[in-house]
């Protein structure tokens, strides 16, 4: 459907273009013809007076000749040979001076008695021209004018004739006729350079002078019978068959000249008309091509503009959609955020709960540990206490005996023993503290304090405790909790070596990169493979009930993690377990 429409449009446009080109051609030729017509008219207007002048120049010559005594004399005495000779000589002289074709004199019968060309083979003397109209006119006292081909010379010419009066008196009886023949050949010669066809036709439409030789003695239209008869009678175009000119150009300009009804005609060259038409058509084609190209460019431009507008609209729509999406998404995010915030609040609550629970747990673990240590501590306190009593009893005896020196010695021992008890109790008091206090912790001191609290236990079980602690290693945290971890690890080590042959626990302290490393190695059997995975799980224990709760390592691990540290365990190559506690070293200036 669309293709058909396009085809129709194309055909229509093509037809229009053809029409415009054809119209331009016609307009071009019309204009050129018009121009040529005007040009021709101007040319003819210039040419016609020339011809007119040429014809008029000799108008009076025969009239004047009519009064020549030689002519009158000869006509009066045609058989007077000297008179005829004088006549011929006069005519010849005048002809040469006036530069005309010929001058001749005829008697009343039309017989030529004298002529300027008397001495030439085709001279007129003896010829009769009574059939020529100019002779007839002059014989009747009028001026005779005629154009025709000479019957003797076969040369065309313009003849002017005047009567010769017998007594030399105008209006008197006519003795004869004098005629002058003028050649128009020179005039015609000036036309030869012209591109256009120039022709001179007589009143009956017969062309007798032209720059195109094939046009001469042709008629513009078919001659009627009367005219043909007339031509035959006057022998105007002696021996020439007048045929109509066929296919001559219709475009010509004409100007009448002279007194014989002549028409001077100009046929401008058709090629110029044609060329103008073709030029106009070519210009139209060029214009059409320009129009086509510019309309195509315009069309392209409009299409591009439309496309750009469409894409801009699409972009706008996309932007609007994006805005909508952003609004929607923002709303969603806000909702999610609110949701998260409430979740976070709940989480914080839970964390708080967990922390307090954890604190409770740590405290519980600590108290449990104290419980476990109670036997050892009791023993530790009992020893100095028994010693104090013994020293006091002995002092009393020494006092009774008046041995003051021994009393003083015993009192010194009592003081020493009570100081030791004070130290033990002090440690326990500090350890039982519930609150967390974060401060700088000297790890060597913590190691020693932990060892001190378990000293009696180790001794009781005949386990050697070796301490290899470097001084000056400090971390940030709660010393009590660190000691809680160390005591827990030392107790586990003690339990592990209890049944072993070699009973050694080594506690080391050193720097390990940015961390402080506390290691507790024992000479026990190591951690069984099935236990490794569950080591730090709460309530995991391999010990008989009453001895272990399975909370020690779980609590220790959580304490260490809270201080950004790490608690790991592995078995040593030579046997026994090794626990490693890493805490970040206190940075300089803190
Ligand atoms: P508990 O000491 O109450 O059992 P822990 O959490 O302290 O609880 O220890 C968990 C378990 O890890 C112990 O039951 C024991 O089997 C194992 N364990 C801990 N320390 C050692 C060690 N030094 N050598 C071998 N096994 C150990």
Q: What is the tally of helical segments?
A: 13
Overall CATH class of the domain at 436-584: Alpha Beta
The amount of beta strand, in percent, is 15-25%
How many β-strand runs?
18
Heterogens: adenosine-5'-diphosphate
State the share of residues found in helices, binned by percent. Answer: 40-55%
Main location: membrane
Protein name: C4-dicarboxylate transport sensor protein DctB
Coiled coil: 330-360
Domain Histidine kinase: 376-587
Descriptive overview:
- It contains 13 helices and 18 strands.
- With 590 residues, it is α+β, with helices and mostly antiparallel strands.
- Among the domains are: 61-184, PAS domain (Beta-Lactamase, 2-Layer Sandwich), CATH 3.30.450; 187-268, PAS domain (Beta-Lactamase, 2-Layer Sandwich), CATH 3.30.450.20; 436-584, Heat Shock Protein 90 (2-Layer Sandwich), CATH 3.30.565.10.
- The strands form four sheets. A six-stranded mixed sheet has the order 9-8-7-6-11-10, covered by helices on one side. Strands 2-1-5-4-3 form a five-stranded antiparallel sheet. Strands 13-15-16-18-17 form a five-stranded mixed sheet.
- Strand 7 (206-210) and strand 8 form a beta hairpin.
- Helix 1 (2-57) packs antiparallel against helix 8 and helix 10 packs parallel to helix 11 (479-497).
- The longest helix has 131 residues, at 270-400.
- It comes from Rugamonas rivuli.
- Keywords: ATP-binding, Cell inner membrane, Cell membrane, Coiled coil, Kinase, Membrane, Nucleotide-binding, Phosphoprotein, Transferase, Transmembrane, Transmembrane helix, Two-component regulatory system.
- Its EC number is 2.7.13.3.
């Amino acid at each position: 459907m669309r293709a058909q429409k396009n085809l129709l449009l194309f055909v229509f446009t093509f037809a229009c273009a053809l029409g415009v080109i054809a119209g331009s051609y016609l307009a071009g030729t019309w204009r050129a013809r018009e121009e040529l017509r005007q040009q021709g008219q101007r040319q003819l207007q210039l040419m016609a007076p020339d011809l007119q002048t040429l014809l008029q120049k000799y108008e009076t010559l025969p009239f004047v000749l009519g009064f020549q005594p030689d002519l009158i004399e000869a006509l009066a005495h045609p058989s007077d040979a000297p008179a005829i000779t004088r006549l011929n000589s006069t005519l010849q002289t005048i002809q040469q001076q006036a530069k005309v074709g010929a001058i001749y004199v005829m008697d009343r019968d039309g017989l030529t008695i004298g002529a300027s060309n008397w001495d030439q083979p085709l001279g007129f003397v003896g010829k009769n021209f009574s059939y020529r109209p100019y002779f007839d006119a002059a014989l009747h006292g009028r001026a005779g004018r005629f154009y025709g081909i000479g019957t003797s010379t076969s040369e065309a010419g313009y003849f002017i004739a005047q009567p010769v009066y017998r007594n030399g008196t105008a209006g008197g009886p006519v003795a004869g006729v004098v005629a002058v023949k003028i050649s128009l050949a020179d005039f015609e010669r000036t036309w030869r350079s012209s591109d256009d066809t120039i022709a001179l036709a007589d009143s009956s439409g017969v062309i007798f002078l032209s720059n195109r030789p094939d046009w001469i003695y042709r008629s513009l239209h078919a001659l009627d019978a009367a005219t043909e008869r007339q031509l035959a009678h006057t022998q105007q175009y002696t021996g020439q068959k007048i045929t109509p000119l066929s296919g001559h150009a219709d475009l010509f300009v004409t100007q009448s000249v002279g007194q014989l009804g002549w028409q001077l005609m100009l046929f401008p060259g058709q090629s110029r008309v044609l060329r103008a038409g073709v030029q106009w058509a070519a210009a139209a084609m060029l214009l059409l091509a320009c129009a086509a190209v510019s309309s195509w460019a315009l069309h392209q431009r409009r299409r591009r503009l439309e496309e750009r507008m469409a894409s801009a609209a699409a972009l706008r729509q996309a932007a609007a959609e994006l805005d909508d999406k952003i609004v929607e998404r923002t709303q969603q995010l806000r909702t999610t955020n609110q949701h998260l915030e409430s979740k976070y609040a709940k989480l914080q609550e839970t964390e708080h709960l967990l922390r307090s629970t954890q604190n409770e747990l740590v405290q519980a673990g600590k108290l449990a540990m104290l419980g476990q240590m109670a036997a050892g501590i009791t023993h530790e306190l009992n020893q100095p206490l028994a010693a104090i009593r013994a020293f006091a009893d002995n002092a009393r005896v020494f006092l009774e005996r008046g041995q003051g020196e021994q009393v003083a010695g015993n009192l010194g021992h009592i003081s020493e023993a009570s100081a030791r008890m004070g130290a033990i109790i002090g440690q326990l008091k500090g350890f039982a503290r519930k609150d967390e206090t974060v401060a700088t912790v000297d790890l060597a001191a913590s190691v020693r304090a932990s060892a001190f609290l378990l000293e009696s236990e180790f001794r009781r079980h005949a386990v050697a405790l070796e301490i290899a602690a470097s001084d000056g290693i400090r971390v940030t945290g709660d010393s009590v909790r660190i000691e809680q971890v160390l005591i827990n690890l030392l107790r586990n080590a003690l339990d592990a070596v209890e049944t072993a042959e070699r009973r050694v626990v080594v506690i080391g302290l050193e720097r390990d990169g940015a961390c402080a490393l506390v290691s507790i190695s024992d000479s026990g059997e190591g951690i069984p493979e099935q236990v490794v995975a569950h080591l730090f799980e709460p309530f995991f224990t391999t010990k008989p009930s009453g001895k272990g709760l399975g909370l020690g390592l779980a609590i220790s691990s959580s304490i260490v993690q809270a201080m950004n540290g790490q608690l790991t365990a592995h078995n040593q190559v030579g046997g026994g377990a090794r626990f490693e506690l890493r805490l970040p070293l206190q940075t300089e200036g803190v």
